[in-house]
Design brief:
Layout (H helix, E strand, L loop, with lengths): L1 H17 L7 E2 L2 H6 L1 H4 L2 E12 L2 E6 L4 E5 L4 H8 L13 H10 L2 E3 L5 E6 L1 E13 L5 H6 L7 E15 L3 H4 L8 H14 L6 E5 L7 E7 L8 E5 L5 E3 L9 H13 L4 H4 L11
Parallel strand pairs: 1-2, 4-8
Antiparallel strand pairs: 2-3, 2-7, 3-4, 5-6, 7-8, 9-10, 10-11, 11-12
Helix pairs in contact: 8-9
């Protein structure tokens, strides 16, 4: 009798061990998350994917299906959910040796000869296995995203832990090759920040936006203190000029000039093109 009981317990134990636990993460892929976000929303998942860290964005990507999911902690949709009584238990990232190694490679960026750091220029291609909570913000909140200018994610991954980190070096020469290009959003934001800071302004933030019909101009709205009275600015992405929308005047300051010269060298702006003085859209010639 005792042997039969022991045998039965052994079988049951083996069956339980072979079954996934209720709190085990769901193993899936980025492509599957993008195809069926409702199925995984609010659940702890495990994925293996490439991690990308860029200017004002970082997350997981899979080019085979054009999937892209931002990694982050808080978005405005959380406030709307809280008002409706929907709350999530917070997840805290486990900052062990795997995580520190992961961040070391992900944060390694190319530096320009002028000393500037390019957030959009990684020096490693990083692939990791990650565990965390997946959030899907349903279409009923898309109106909020439209109001915000489209910067808020509809898909989010709240990172809890990473392991099995793979880092493949990227040749830095791919960034330093001399070729004509436009000013990036990161560079435009840096110039605007430098200019406002030179005006002894403090406690401000910049909200980038686009205007239909002007693809060559990056617009910014200054939120907070701007002592010269301008609120909206445009950065010409061909020449690195900054224009005030209200005054229709080019803007300048000591450190802005220095940064503009460095950026114009980076984008291989010729001396002939530097002499061209395009006007702010909407301003009379």
């Amino acid at each position: 009798m005792r042997r039969s009981v022991v045998a039965l317990l052994t079988v049951l134990s083996g069956t339980l061990i072979g079954q996934p636990k209720a709190n085990d993460p769901i193993k899936t892929s980025l492509c599957e998350l993008s195809r069926e976000p409702q199925r995984f929303s609010g659940k702890v998942i495990e994925i293996r994917s490439e991690f990308v860290s860029r200017f004002e964005w970082e997350g997981f990507v899979d080019e085979t299906c054009s999937a892209k999911i931002q990694v982050g902690a808080h978005v405005v949709f959380d406030d709307f959910r809280a008002q409706d009584g929907q709350t999530h238990l917070p997840l805290h990232t486990k900052q062990d040796r795997n995580y520190l190694a992961f961040r070391k490679y992900a944060d390694k960026k190319f530096k320009w000869p002028d000393g500037g750091r390019c957030q959009d220029c990684p020096l490693y291609r990083v692939v990791v296995t990650a565990e965390g909570r997946f959030d899907y913000f349903a279409g009923g909140m898309v109106g909020v995203e439209a109001i915000s200018g489209g910067h808020l994610p509809l898909l989010r991954f709240v990172l809890q832990s990473v392991w099995d980190v793979s880092a493949t070096p990227i040749d830095p020469s791919v960034y330093s090759i001399k070729k004509r290009r436009d000013v990036t959003l990161e560079e435009a934001h840096e110039m605007m920040t430098r200019f406002i800071q030179d005006r002894r302004s403090s406690g401000f933030s910049l909200e980038p936006y686009q205007v239909e019909g002007y693809p060559g101009v990056q617009f910014f709205q200054v939120l907070g203190d701007d002592p010269i009275g301008e609120i909206h600015y445009g950065v010409d992405l061909k020449t690195a000029e900054i224009w005030g929308e209200a005054s229709c005047q080019t803007m300048t300051s000591p450190s802005l000039k220095k940064l503009q010269n460095a950026i114009r060298t980076r984008i291989s702006l010729t001396e002939e093109f530097r002499r061209v003085r395009p006007r702010m859209p909407g301003c009379a010639p």
